[in-house]
Amino acid sequence: MRILFIGDVVARSGRRAVLNHVSSLRTEHAVDAVLMNAENVAGGFSITPPIAKELFEAGIDLMTSGNHIFDKKEVVPYIRKQPKLIRPANYPPGTPGAGCFEGEIAGRKIAVINLLGRVFMPPVDDPFRSVDECLSMLDPESKIRIVDMHCEATSEKYAMGWHLDGRVSLVVGTHTHVPTADERILENGTAYVTDLGMTGSYAGVIGMNKEDVLKRFTIMPHDRAGHSKGSVWICYIVVEIDDETGKALTIERFRKEVN
Ligand SMILES: [Fe+2]
Ligand SMILES: [Fe+2]
Questions:
Q1: pTM metric for this prediction
Q2: Domains, the chain, ranges and CATH?
């Protein structure tokens, strides 16, 4: 199976980039499924049902998220009935939605797990124990297993890569909005990259207006920062996974300017 995974899609510019290009990316890379992180698609925070619908219709097969998933209240009833939008698995018991998707995509049984890190992040349960629990509940026939480790610290993401090496097909990091150049296949066959990077405007500071962010660092009081425009990049990886073993065969990283 060939999977394309797009990092945090931020605000209107990121959303437009995905909507306009997902179909051609699918053809160009001959992929069976396209996943993306959707924690920032609606004005930079969370997602709304109409936006989710638009993205699914454009060709996104499944969306992961992160710490901003519940920033819009409309997402609560939506995530309860949309299994292809997942939220961190290590949120407290009773949190709306699921932290793991297990089902069929492109004719394969596939599992996708979303986790939130704990270093410089809101307090949550231990993602290492949470992912072990999620994996223990999966059907052994779900050979293709993908984990989005949404967190700030590269060390915590790398540790999760080694923790899951040989037990899942792919571990991707998200949240920092800057892509890292360390994509590789770990010793026991898990494809890994520390951060997919943002899909959105790189004209500012991780998706926000540079002037506003500079004020936030230098002036008090300051206003909330707006979103930057221009220099729109789509950042993603393409991974090829052996359907029989679930081991990764290749991982490639891409950064495309789409202005
Ligand atoms: Fe993000
Ligand atoms: Fe985040």
A1: 0.98
A2: 2-257 (3.60.21.10)
